[in-house]
Write a structure and sequence with these properties.
Chain lengths: ~180, ~525
């Protein structure tokens, strides 16, 4: 049920604040289940709309990210039916198992996101440029290869190496008690 | 615990998945891992989260210098992070507002620019200007500009489509494309149906046009007469004992003054005077058009004309479509046949000069299905634009897929350092007429003026983009000086994103078309002649 007009403005403010703060985490959760940027963005958009519509159901003081990820989970399930599995790689049983693991690692993935920034700063500018070009909206490995002057094969190899480097750096950062 | 070898294998599988270079054998292999091992699932979740974070940081930093990497400690900020958090917040407000008010299109957040062009002087007769200014027909008028007409008649066409004929002596303030203030003197306003809502203020009254022709006479004492010649207006007194709005219909009139609302003195004479058409000297501005009806196809080629004679060198070529499938791309259009874009094909036509710093208007009909996906938003029409100051960037006309910047599905034009958003959702399976007026500034140092019209109504003026984004210096010659349909444009050619929908009656006018000219194209599918303009 929609709140009376006086409360509606406050409700909107709360929603805006929560979504601004946590949209990235929800995207990360969706991307884990649907590892394609465009598809994940589509589902994030649909999820955002449902969050807006159902925000009256959200209980103040409970975990917004967990609540939003529940909605995202059902949007992913819906996407499986709607797109006849073309948008998700795994069967539902595996998606459910990944979703459970992703939920339990929610706090850790937030910390890893922040630690990643420090690790990115440590990369050689040329490597960082390659990585960020690869992940720019609308870009991809061929674009990153072209801009960096590498062959496609060399770009794939470099990206694999850099992601592993960052993965280990982030793990090390957290083991040391946080970003340094 | 996973061995080093197992970690390396998982890492390789995750990379292949993220980069889309995934074989069926790899899919089976990783599925096997994920179904049986919690440790593998944890590795996978961390690896995918790393890529999601890289998407975030790459979006945020785009092509910025390394030193611009946001400072650590931006804990808990949203998708747009520290750089654009205020924007994200504003955008969320837009989306929240939209959801709470579903069905009522909202205007995108407006940016007020004091130097914004909002109208043009389109005709005149025996004008003498006061205030040390001299305006000639064709001159652009900016927000906040004051016109002091000592003698004669001047027609002002606002970008909303409203037209006002000012009769000297009179003083008029140009407030925006949608409103103006008559300080003193007389005017006659004609408002196209597409400009309903245009308002004229005086010290005594605010008149909102509801699709009509009316006159306002403001005297030095602050009173104003309002006479409705056609249609109806809503008049709201700005002072006096009663402030309720009054609906005035054809042949009705009221005088608004400090003491209240009364009858107009000499109303018959005033109606007779303002019902007379004043012949004006119209600014003759030849516009060259290139038009693709998208009706006549020969092989992969679609013919171009200038709404009359053929223009062979502008013919449009279909790309990425086998010969056997070309026929299926011609579908019933808004006028005869339209071209269906299926998410794979695109088309290109050479257009010498299009990439230069030139004024032009792109107009076409478009139909987008209700279930069109966000990935199909790029781009109905695109071209490459070069600017000495802002560098080289593509211009894309598509529909908005970014909820953080406006309503999903509304018309969106992206260009170097700026973008414009409409208000009408296009994803409804119906034909909509789109026109985008693109006016690079002569100094090359400020952003171009971009105005969007949907179904003849002004909706969406350009505003600056958030910081970020690089410029290309190595643009393929194939990309320059051509109009591209159905694809996103990169510096070497079309990118992988494609538009899904139907296009019809594309035309590019080499000039900034006025609202009446755009409405003419929409209604008649041909340019407005000077003679026809004089009759309107």
């Amino acid at each position: 049920m929609r709140p009376p007009p006086d409360n509606e403005t406050e409700s909107r403010k709360r929603l805006v604040s929560l979504m601004t703060r946590h949209q990235r985490q929800v995207f990360s959760y969706i991307y884990t289940l649907v590892p394609d940027r465009h598809d994940a963005e589509d589902i994030l958009q649909e999820t955002s709309l449902v969050i807006c519509e159902k925000f009256d159901d959200f209980e103040e003081g409970t975990d917004f990210v967990a609540w939003a990820c529940q909605i995202a989970y059902w949007r992913v399930r819906y996407a499986r039916q709607k797109f006849a599995r073309s948008k998700v790689v795994f069967n539902q049983e595996i998606v459910d198992a990944i979703a459970l693991t992703a939920s339990t690692l929610q706090k850790e993935t937030g910390d890893r996101h922040e630690a990643l920034l420090h690790c990115l700063r440590k990369l050689h500018p040329r490597d960082r440029e390659l990585l960020l070009t690869r992940y720019e909206p609308g870009s991809g490995v061929p674009e990153a290869a072209k801009r960096s002057g590498r062959s496609l094969e060399a770009a794939y190899k470099a990206l694999n190496r850099l992601r592993k480097l960052l993965f280990d750096c982030v793990t090390h950062q957290l083991a040391m008690g946080g970003p340094r | 615990m996973l061995s080093d070898k197992e970690i390396l294998e998982l890492n390789e599988l995750c990379n292949a998945l993220v980069d889309g270079a995934f074989t069926e054998a790899q899919r089976v292999r990783i599925a096997s891992w994920l179904s049986r091992s919690e440790e593998a699932r944890q590795f996978y979740v961390r690896a995918m989260a790393l890529s999601a974070s890289l998407c975030h940081y790459a979006t945020e930093m785009h092509a910025d210098e390394p030193d611009n990497i946001p400072a650590p400690g931006a804990r808990g900020r949203g998708w747009f992070g520290s750089v654009a958090a205020p924007l994200a917040a504003a955008a969320c407000v837009t989306m929240v507002f939209w959801v709470f008010n579903r069905g009522k299109p909202i205007e995108p957040l407006a940016e007020t620019r004091t130097d914004e062009v909002v109208a043009r002087l389109t005709a005149s007769k025996e004008c003498q200007w006061g205030g040390g200014a001299a305006f000639s027909p064709g001159v652009v008028l900016r927000r906040g500009q004051r016109l002091e007409l000592a003698k004669g008649f001047a027609e002002i066409t606002f970008d909303s489509g409203a037209q006002v004929v000012l009769e000297g002596p009179a003083t008029l303030d140009i407030t925006s494309a949608w409103d103006t203030t008559l300080r003193q003197g007389a005017l006659k306003a004609s408002v196209l149906p597409e400009a309903i809502g245009f308002s004229i203020n005086s010290e005594a009254v605010k008149v909102v046009d509801l699709g009509t022709e009316f006159t306002m006479i403001a005297d030095a004492g602050g009173a104003a007469d309002v006479l409705v010649l056609k249609g109806e207006v809503e008049a709201t007194p700005r002072r006096g004992p009663g402030l309720d709005s009054i609906l005035l219909r054809e042949n009705e009139s009221r005088r608004f003054e400090q003491s209240g609302v009364t009858d107009v003195r000499d109303r018959e004479q005033k109606f007779a005077r303002f019902n007379q058409r004043v012949p004006l000297e119209r600014f003759a501005r030849p516009v060259r058009y290139v038009h693709w009806s998208l009706d006549e196809r020969e092989g992969a080629w679609l013919k171009a004309d200038d709404f009359g004679a053929r223009l062979d060198r502008f013919d449009l070529r279909l790309e990425s479509v086998p010969e056997t499938k070309r026929a299926a791309l011609s579908v019933e259009g808004r006028s005869q046949s339209a071209l269906r874009f299926d998410g794979r094909i695109y088309a290109r036509a050479p257009f010498p000069g299009l990439s230069g710093n030139v004024v032009h208007t792109v107009a076409f009909w478009v139909k987008v299905s209700e279930d069109s996906q966000l990935s199909s938003a790029y781009a109905m029409v695109a071209w490459w634009a070069e600017n000495r100051q802002f560098g080289s960037r593509p211009v894309h006309i598509g529909w908005n897929r970014n909820p953080n910047e406006g309503t999903i599905g509304v018309l969106r034009t992206d260009y170097g350092r700026g973008f414009a958003l409409g208000a009408t959702p296009l994803r409804d399976g119906r034909w909509h007429h789109v026109a985008v007026v693109f006016v690079p500034r002569a100094d090359g140092a400020t952003l171009p003026e971009v105005k969007q019209y949907v179904d003849g109504r002004l909706e969406g003026e350009g505003r600056p983009s958030p910081p970020g984004g690089g410029f290309s210096t190595n643009v393929n010659e194939l990309v320059r000086d051509a109009v591209w349909l159905g694809c996103r444009l990169g510096e070497t050619g079309p990118k992988r994103e494609r538009f899904r929908g139907e296009l019809d009656e594309l035309c590019i006018g080499e000039g900034a078309l006025s609202p009446p000219e755009i409405v003419q194209l929409m209604k008649e599918n041909k340019p407005l002649t000077l003679e026809a303009a004089a009759q309107k």
